[in-house]
Amino acid sequence: MKKKISLIGAGQIGGTLAHLIALKELADVVLFDVAEGIAKGKALDIAQSSGVSGSKINLIGTNNYKDIKNSDVIIITAGVPRKPGMTRDDLLGINLKIIKEVAEGIKNNSPNSFVICITNPLDVIVMALQKYSGLPHNMVVGMAGILDSSRFKYFLSKQLDIPVNKINSLVLGGHGDTMVPMLEQTEIDGVSLSKFLKDGKIDKKKLEEIVDRTRKGGAEIVKFLQKGSAFYAPAASGVEMAESYLKDQKKQLPCAVYLQGEYGVKNLYAGVPVIIGASGVEKIIELKLSDEEKKSFHQSIKAVEDLFSAAKKIDTNLN
Which of 22, 63, 190, 244 is the least buried, fewest Cβ under 10 Å from its Cβ? Predict the structure, then answer.
């Protein structure tokens, strides 16, 4: 039986997700948006490209939550994107209201789905989504670490002139300016990054610039675009998570998941490496962090906690 992916939000990320899913023939697609015309128009446009791509999936656009019924996967991009000068945190009040409606729609129509959240500020929104919807923690995850890691690997590959697929690294913590690229865990063509530093193939200052550019990766794109934020790389990252779940690939991916004591963090969503398979989040991988990484990770966790406290002031139901 063909799988079904519902995309909540038919903006730039939603439309790109629909296109990528169609090209991969991963599942039938329901593109939902409160602006019905946008969802219907994009779904029809992508469907009309099937004569070229040969893709054999069904796409529909809708503004009715009933159409997401019995989805295998739901990917949420609904919300306001960042504007120049706006932090991810500025979005909090607006996007909390939106996510509350989305959570209701999912709870009432497709409560057994694997739900991937991309809406910013990511860690707090995914936490609110889980609380509002009441879905099990292992079935509600946030997409951030894959995107942040992909940016970090890309910048390193450009600096070192080494193909990006030869770089193995990951970014943990909250999806914000305190995210933690794991330098000690980074390998380039099987060689540790610390060896590259020691051999003078990259210097500490350059590496710090790359880390900073990774943290501000989204803001850099917002600045260029002026009227929108990144969508190609976030969509590609969301599809990787959906595919690992649908095909039970059990890939190890950095995602924002609910921690219950792992990494010394309790009752909070944050980015760590996990295994995603047919049961959702099947395992949280605990890496041995250096003292420096531990310190940075806990700084990042504190930023997420502070923002969640701000969310609880906006909506006391989150307490």
Answer: 190
DSSP 1: -
The 10 Å Cβ neighbour count of residue 190 is 7
In angstroms, the CA 268 to CA 122 distance is: 12
- Angle (CA) 5-78-249 rounded to 5° is 35
The tokens for 60 are 């529909």
Phi-psi domain of 264 (left: phi exceeds 0; alpha: psi -120 through 50; beta: other)? left
pLDDT digits (tens, 9 = 90+) for 186-212: 999 999 999 999 999 999 999 999 999
Paired with 283 in beta bridges are 275
Tokens 């939550």 belong to 65
Q: Outline where the chain has alpha helix (H).
A: 12-24, 36-48, 50-53, 92-109, 122-133, 145-160, 193-198, 204-215, 217-225, 232-246, 291-314
Which H or E run includes 60? strand 59-62
Alpha-carbon distance of 288 to 297, in angstroms, equals 12
Whole-number pLDDT of residue 88? 66
pLDDT digits (tens, 9 = 90+) for 152-167: 999 999 999 999 999 9
Query: Percent of the chain scored above 70 by pLDDT?
Result: 100
Judge contact between 118 and 143, C-beta under 8 A: yes
Q: Which residues of 41-69 are buried (b: 16+ CB within 10 A; e: fewer)?
A: bbbeebbeebeeeebebebbbbeebebbe
Cα separation, 219 vs 207, whole angstroms: 19
Beta bridge partners of 271: 173, 256
19 tagged catalytic: no
Give the pLDDT confidence of 73-115 residue by residue, as tens digits: 999 999 987 777 877 677 898 999 999 999 999 999 999 999 9
Residue of 19, 137, 175, 298 marked catalytic: 175
Q: Which residues pair with 258 in a beta bridge?
A: 269
Does residue 35 surpass a pLDDT of 90?
yes
